[in-house]
């Protein structure tokens, strides 16, 4: 490790203590054990912002139940390609975690992952027709071959009784189910990974905020770091910088001055959830159930009634209820949005605003919802819901990517995007869903992009970490079965 001087020097600096930095740090520690690495996190613990389980409600994203990943075409057919891609990515993540469990990096898998069926549930003829078309498009794919589908209310009741009990409106119902889904506590997982990094020589510093960065004359990056406890600042130097600071990544990418960050903006969306306080109700539901998004709603606002396992305790939540805040982080500043506006991203942002008036209208209506209106919305899923059994909690911030588009001038992107310099010396992650569940493949892609001269020498180790590395499981059912059986066993999901 480098000596702690006024300007400590590292091979790699990770900015942010969430699941992305923890994943990248863990990979690099295995691939290059002699490299010096530092991680700076503004908060006093890892995984407390976007990776916190109550700030990251869509845990275990695998495109098994999230309908927005399988859009319907104009002719009524459904395109499964995006769902296949996301599910492939989640299998990579599962293999990465399995490797860490098998090698003692992660301890009891139940502390961060638990088996949980994933369901899609809709009502009304149009939505039921869509869900049937989705099932017909996805179930022939090897990745989704065990998916079930029904329009029988009693079968649905057997899967998730809260959806059916008290429902008397006579509407056509439909549900799809994947019994082999999971629920993930990314806060617990992130903290376990950062503890491992600390134990293996990574200089993990909490209460340290990176306030700016610039390129030195020798090509290294100079990061301005403020220590909360000491009340002082210092400069850390690095050959490579990863900015995994959630909503805070945009400001630092802009500060870097790299041309690849020009034209990017951020659109913050906040959220709230109803969390059940009645153990009797909690124990009647064992599934992650997603429905259809409201007209004008962003994909991240798809309503869902979810069983959760947080810090070893079973919970139940419903939401989200979207809101608007100009903060880019839950712990950020209301000036985050206005201070992110630059001459190079102003036009794309204005075009996004012009083309997404429906989203703005939706957010205004969501903010105006009373608590009773929120309970009424939940009753579409859970007809017998009683407001006294639920508490309203504030979730985290999501910053959706806005970027230049040659046709529209600017587009709003509901996904994640890695932005990196041409020389691979710095990279940052922008965006949200599917986010944490695809951390491993996203970071593997970052390694390929930023370390092209190294990736060939790393390939054997990467195949040890992720046996399917470089291959598609959906194209190889035999490999899919082998990988699934191995990860289920390692993660105790059998």
UniProtKB/TrEMBL annotation:
Enzyme class: oxidoreductase
Superkingdom assignment: Bacteria
Alphabetical UniProt keywords: FAD, Flavoprotein, Oxidoreductase, Tricarboxylic acid cycle
InterPro entries, per the entry: FAD/NAD-bd_sf (IPR036188), MQO (IPR006231)
Gene from which the chain derives: mqo
The UniProt record lists the keyword Lipid metabolism: no
An example Gene Ontology molecular-function term: L-malate dehydrogenase (quinone) activity
Cofactors (names): FAD
E.C. numbers: 1.1.5.4
Keyword Oxidoreductase: yes
Family: Belongs to the MQO family.
Transmembrane segments: none
Name this protein carries in UniProt: Probable malate:quinone oxidoreductase
UniProt pathway annotation: Carbohydrate metabolism; tricarboxylic acid cycle; oxaloacetate from (S)-malate (quinone route): step 1/1
